[in-house]
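step: validate -> pass
step: tokenize input -> pass
step: predict -> running
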Amino acid sequence: MHGESSFMKLELRGITKRFPGVVANDNVNLALNTGEVLSLIGENGAGKSTLMSVLYGMYKPDEGDILIDGESQVFTSPADAIAAGIGMVHQHFMLVPVFTVAENVVLGVEPTGALGKLNIDEARRMVREISDKYSLDLDPDAVIEDLPVGVQQRVEIVKVLLRDAKVVVFDEPTAVLTPSEIIEFFEIVKTLVSAGRGVVFITHKLKEALNIADRIAVLRRGKVVGEVDPKTATESQIAEMMVGRPVELTVQKNSALAGDVVLKVTDLTVLDADGRTHVENVSFEVRAGEIVGIAGVQGNGQTELVEALTGLRKATGGTISLDGKDLTHSDPRERHQMGMAHIPEDRQRQGLVGGMSVAENLVLTRYHDDQFSHGVMVDWDAANAIADTLIGEYDIRTPNKETGVGTLSGGNQQKVIVARELSRDLRLTIAAQPTRGVDVGSIEYIHSRIVKERDAGTAVLIVSTELDEVMALSDRLLVMYRGKVVAELDPKKATPMEVGLYMAGSRPDSAVKA
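step: predict -> pass
step: emit ->
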């Protein structure tokens, strides 16, 4: 089924895709030859995912054509795109956790023997052949749920190669990888290209695009606003094309003036309903006027730690105190009233009610406060007044405060949460993945508000899988691995590679302690 890749030219001509009230793609023209990497960059909501969904047969374009070697194609499903030589590795892997590597790779195209039974030996051989050819180092009999995310990604790559993809689309492929895994991934991309495959690399990480791409196309508001040569382009130039204005890409902050301990966590342990340990004997402190960052690959206990700190999950053992008061068994409202802010990692599931207005979401955790509540009634005059103020102060781009928050871009949804959580007197801010899925302009703004909060004397805890972000914001850095804090480092002295080794469960020889 898989063979040597032959030359193929892929073209998108005049692609337009509309949704009610939105033109997601507006007369987009792109071309890719096999044997090269095209990086597609743009703000959240710029139309990248929609465009790739059109290419992959998930959406039908309203106008325009997809051409392969000059011939127009009509894709009614991903199966059509796959048959035409286009494969996609999604940001969230499409793997069955309890299946082996071989079982996942051949799912849907299974080699069979007598009576239609899966020929597992042939499946193993197919995996080994592709794995060896592209130096992917996969064990066909390994179970997916036992593999690191970097290895799971390789399984996805083998899946598309088995189906003879001549063009491979990677959607935010490094979002869950450690620095060393990113280096390995780039080597895999180079191997694919040298074997004659074409690669579309969708990312919001400008350094990575400049590192790996042969050409970079920039989308803004559904249109291609230009292409740049990675050999001569700069991060600042690309960021300005994405946003339409100059962007400050570095976090501007002075040294921290740390005060008294605000948050004290002692021997915290968190189990799930099945008795599995997600957080194990974790202890740390966060002081007034400092930012403590927690780095780690997603799935190493950070989510459960934040949920325990904010009262969304019960702690199994240990204690949590705020300004000396034990909060271990307090509910989220009690913690909120004591001055704890929470920017959740999943804004749509935990941070917002999509069907409610911007104004309603801006008072969602405060409607019961004396400022907005008169018995059982909400004082909507007061709520609307604070909404008007916050929309202006936090630069929330919305037609008006009555607009449904679910219709806003990801960056503006995140600003609604940041505005709601930071616009009151605080002792502690807990921000989990504060800029996930957010464009560079909104990242710049959110980072500046977090630093401003620190400088006002608030204790800040940042949890992020974006290593550049957590190292740039933090005054002290903790690393979590398999539910434990395995290192405390000085982000000014530690290198990303050293931090990455801790994230992967190793200890670098030249570790720099805080």
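step: describe -> The mean pLDDT is 88.
step: cleanup -> pass
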